[in-house]
Amino acid sequence: MVEQRLKLKVNQEKSSVRHAREARLPGFGFYFTRSGVKIRVDPKAIKHLKDRIRELTSRRWSVSMFYRIDRLNAFTAGWMAYFHLSDLAPRLRELDKWLHRRMRQIRWKEWKRYAARRRNLRKLGIPDAKHAGMGCQQQRVLADCRVGRPSAPGL
């Protein structure tokens, strides 16, 4: 039908009609609920997403924060456009927290000295008493970022 009506060539090896349990699409999978079949993102695709975000948020990559955010936005927009049909909301909340923590780590490394950290924390409205002991303790500040939050996936 497709070949005659739309004049398209169909690859018989790749094309088939299958049950959702057996179907495979690049980056997607299926799962079953009471309301029917739903689409999920394949775990390999999530791993690839995290690996690429790690590259873009590497603290060794010395580029401006504006450029870094621009590259992250371009990548995530494309990724979301591809996977927009799948059920992602819970997974994206976890990934968002993880990404925000990585971005805080980058900013903290940019503020190399105690004086710069103290000055920039003041600009952000954090009182002196709160950041008095933070100025030279990178690990403590990054650990404080996680207080009250579940740990980030895959770290």
In short:
The chain has 155 residues and is mainly α.
How many individual helices?
7
What order do the helices and strands follow? Answer: HEEHHHHHH
Kindly name the structural category.
Answer: mainly alpha
The mean pLDDT is: 77
Distance between the termini: 50 Å
The share of residues in extended strands comes to 5-15%
User: Main β-sheet, in a few words?
Assistant: 2 strands, antiparallel
- Any idea what the shape is? elongated
Rg value: 22 Å
Number of strands: 2
Q: How do the strands of the widest beta sheet line up side by side?
A: 1-2
User: Considering DSSP H and I runs of 4 or more, what fraction of the residues is helical?
Assistant: 40-55%
Unreliable spans = 147-155
Task: Report on this structure.
- Helix content is 52%, strand content 8%.
- The protein contains 7 helices and 2 strands, in the order H-E-E-H-H-H-H-H-H.
- The chain is elongated, with a radius of gyration of 22 Å.
